[in-house]
Amino acid sequence: PAVIRRADYAQPAFLIDSVALEFDLVPERTIVKNTMRLRRNPDGAPGARLELMGEALELVSVALNGVPHAEHRAHEHGLTVENLPDAFELTIVSACQPAENTTLSGLYVSSGNFFTQCEAEGFRRITYFLDRPDVMAIYTVTLRADKAAYPVLLSNGNLVEEGELPDGRHFAKWEDPFKKPSYLFALVAGKLVAIEERIRSGSGKEKLLQVWVEPHDLDKTRHAMDSLINSIRWDEARFGLELDLDRFMIVAVSDFNMGAMENKGLNIFNTKYVLANPETATDTDFANVEAVVGHEYFHNWTGNRITCRDWFQLSLKEGLTVFRDQEFSADMQGGDTDEAARAVKRIEDVRALRQFQFAEDAGPMAHPVRPESYVEINNFYTMTVYEKGAEVVRMYQTLFGRDGFRRGMDLYFKRHDGQAVTCDDFRLALADANGRDLTQFERWYSQAGTPRVSVRTAYDSAQRRYAVTLTQHYGDCAPAARETQTGPLLIPFALGLIGRDGRDVPLRLEGETQAAGTTRVLELTEAEQTFTFVDVAEAPLPSLLRNFSAPVVVEYDYTNDELAFLLAHDSDPFNRWEAGQRLATRELLALTARAAASEPLSLDDSVVAAFARVLTDESLSPAFRELALILPSEAYLAEQMAESNPAAVHAARQFMRKRLATALRAEWLAVYERHTASGPYEPTPKATGHRALKNLALAYLAELDDPVDAIRLANAQYDAANNMTDRAAALAALLAAATTAGAAAAQPALDDFYRRFENEPLVIDKWFAMQAMQRGSLDRRIIDVVGKLMAHPAFTLRNPNRARSLIFSFCTHNPAQFHAEDGSGYAFWAEQVIALDALNPQVAARLARSLELWRRYTPALRERMREALERVASQVKSRDVREVVEKALA
Ligand code: B3K
Ligand code: ZN
């Protein structure tokens, strides 16, 4: 397949100033009339013919300045037009088939309504166009459709005209006053209703806000609307950025490939990230809705007003916008001062980064934040581009402070508003606004792989000096990453020193006249550097990489006692959590090795005691305690091994959970009681924290050999629940208890859950997911459960949420069962990738990625995974899946 390279970027030969689109919307055959004003690009290749992109289109006619133009040729990838003047109007009529479009890219039908998805290259499935982000145009859109079937007609920008047409049809005309790339185009048509709010933006202008959904979902829109209003306020306050349109719409659709899409003024969302009310959505769902609404809204400036020159620059908008949504969520949790509350969000984000992005960096799909090449761009909407990209943006803020970061953002908008630019342009704005040379920092964009920082310390009691030596390297990393590495990075390394009394030591570096502060951001720029602190009265304990100041792995040999001390005392809440995770990881890896060798397992009392202290420390927030008491995930642990052994990891982790459950049974019960709230549900951070800790207690109690308490409490909680968080947690606890107590323990609740929520697809997704993720036992393989559920009348491969809820949950969130020795999981995986490939390549390619780390497993598993990959490679057709499996097998 053809490889697209960053180095080959060339400006477009033509520019498009304006586009008028007219749609005659019919599910089977929609006619699109596209009238463009084009001119030759003075900086483009001269004399070139016009190469418009097009895919799955039927060409009807071409006219130049209103006259039929014969010099054109339609082909597999688009339309070539020749013999053109320097400036002209081109009118193209074409047809597409929305009802047949199962790819959910371009124009498609979902529940009888029309929707579009154009990023990255879906616009070419709607009309012939220069479908690339550096071609920005002004759009006018006219929609015509049957009025009874499609009463609502929406597109980007402002509604300028609407009216009746003959034969029961009607029309609406929309104008977007801002020029935009084609990937931000959107239209929606159908039977939808909205909640509305009118607000005044910072400068006093009135804005109309709408959240559009199917009529039965209107009672689940309030939280999305509140999140939108909060997002608008936050962007004004934190970045001085105001909503630029008079009208801002969010539309929910149940068939959607990803989370949501930031189309100008008309964001289209997966229902999963819009709909929420206490009965149907968990606390996590509420938080996700807030984060995604924020994310898409923030794109209005970072992505839409300033967009990407080419898709290699994707992180320019995505890394920056993820960083902005993370900061927004943290502020909504804890304001900008409550560090402990903000840390909860930080911990969750870092946990996801380490579990998924570090894994990506360790495999065949490893790529820099700004990739050098791709086969299918949709495969590069990755954890690296998004989450590592956000860490890269965060490092600017760590280096320059919030004010310095803001100065850089201001300069970025001043220089580039209305343009399509590169990651270098962003970095230069940050550098210039802060008077810094950030040349070396570019390596964060060009080097793949997870950097490691090894730490050595030396205390000289006679001189009262403490030397910290940092060495950066990439360890033994994936070949795909290795070939991108050229030299040391600029790593902001935040550090504190803790005295024997548990207090932070005021820090004074050699050469400084006095101590200042207790956390320092050291700038590591060389392969190895030593930083010497003076005036240090006793040997301190270092608190390294506070608040996770850079996306690296820190190598330092703490003793278990030191980790327990940090867990009890570190003033940096992130590192307090980190100490507990390190302690647990170390124990779990030792247990895994013993489990793999079939040796007996045991856990030291001191480890149990360290966790007991967190569990019973009422001075810590419940939210923090919950995070600290969750053991590292099986996927993360498997990643840390030279050869991943999912069965042994599972045995080890289950052993430790059971041990913590048994040893602390009374404490878990007490915590359960103390944190059970009565009264109406509130999705506030505080109430959420109480629920999280209480439900974690329930989950631990379900691990007991005789889980009677858990079954009793869970059943009572299930019946009394006034919210989905508690109801789903109770059901999950029953499913866990059923592994020892027998499947009958969970069956009544499972059946009730289905009946109760039969008409709530997002809740039924949870029902499928919980069953796919449950633990197996010797006489119960979950693959068999999944097999049965595939035949359930409510299951369909065509709805991505449903496919993800059953298939992805099993293949990516149930490692012990998926990696069954007999290869049954892999055979199932291959079958589903092949089936999905024929319907929806983007979703298929995501699923395909769940085997990419195959080379890192034990030999027996490795062999079976290779067979499955080869089977897929020989049968799939899409570029999307081919790229993934071919890179995996290479
Ligand atoms: N920009 C979209 C993602 C589009 C994915 C295309 N395969 C959503 C977001 O990041 O906000
Ligand atoms: Zn985004």
From TrEMBL:
<protein>
    <recommendedName>
        <fullName>Aminopeptidase N</fullName>
        <ecNumber>3.4.11.2</ecNumber>
    </recommendedName>
</protein>
<dbReference type="InterPro" id="IPR038438">
    <property type="entry name" value="PepN_Ig-like_sf"/>
</dbReference>
<dbReference type="GO" id="GO:0006508">
    <property type="term" value="P:proteolysis"/>
</dbReference>
<comment type="function">
    <text>Aminopeptidase N is involved in the degradation of intracellular peptides generated by protein breakdown during normal growth as well as in response to nutrient starvation.</text>
</comment>
<keyword id="KW-0645">Protease</keyword>
<dbReference type="Pfam" id="PF01433">
    <property type="entry name" value="Peptidase_M1"/>
</dbReference>
<dbReference type="Pfam" id="PF11940">
    <property type="entry name" value="DUF3458"/>
</dbReference>
<comment type="similarity">
    <text>Belongs to the peptidase M1 family.</text>
</comment>
<dbReference type="GO" id="GO:0008237">
    <property type="term" value="F:metallopeptidase activity"/>
</dbReference>
<dbReference type="InterPro" id="IPR027268">
    <property type="entry name" value="Peptidase_M4/M1_CTD_sf"/>
</dbReference>
<dbReference type="GO" id="GO:0008270">
    <property type="term" value="F:zinc ion binding"/>
</dbReference>
<dbReference type="InterPro" id="IPR014782">
    <property type="entry name" value="Peptidase_M1_dom"/>
</dbReference>
<feature type="domain" description="Peptidase M1 membrane alanine aminopeptidase">
    <location>
        <begin position="224"/>
        <end position="444"/>
    </location>
</feature>
<dbReference type="InterPro" id="IPR035414">
    <property type="entry name" value="Peptidase_M1_pepN_Ig-like"/>
</dbReference>
<dbReference type="InterPro" id="IPR001930">
    <property type="entry name" value="Peptidase_M1"/>
</dbReference>
<dbReference type="GO" id="GO:0016285">
    <property type="term" value="F:alanyl aminopeptidase activity"/>
</dbReference>
<keyword id="KW-0482">Metalloprotease</keyword>
<keyword id="KW-0862">Zinc</keyword>
<dbReference type="InterPro" id="IPR024601">
    <property type="entry name" value="Peptidase_M1_pepN_C"/>
</dbReference>
<dbReference type="InterPro" id="IPR037144">
    <property type="entry name" value="Peptidase_M1_pepN_C_sf"/>
</dbReference>
<keyword id="KW-0031">Aminopeptidase</keyword>
<feature type="domain" description="Aminopeptidase N-like N-terminal">
    <location>
        <begin position="114"/>
        <end position="184"/>
    </location>
</feature>
<dbReference type="InterPro" id="IPR012779">
    <property type="entry name" value="Peptidase_M1_pepN"/>
</dbReference>
<keyword id="KW-0378">Hydrolase</keyword>
<feature type="domain" description="Peptidase M1 alanyl aminopeptidase C-terminal">
    <location>
        <begin position="561"/>
        <end position="890"/>
    </location>
</feature>
<dbReference type="InterPro" id="IPR042097">
    <property type="entry name" value="Aminopeptidase_N-like_N_sf"/>
</dbReference>
<dbReference type="Pfam" id="PF17900">
    <property type="entry name" value="Peptidase_M1_N"/>
</dbReference>
<dbReference type="Pfam" id="PF17432">
    <property type="entry name" value="DUF3458_C"/>
</dbReference>
<feature type="domain" description="Peptidase M1 alanyl aminopeptidase Ig-like fold">
    <location>
        <begin position="449"/>
        <end position="557"/>
    </location>
</feature>
<dbReference type="InterPro" id="IPR045357">
    <property type="entry name" value="Aminopeptidase_N-like_N"/>
</dbReference>
<keyword id="KW-0479">Metal-binding</keyword>
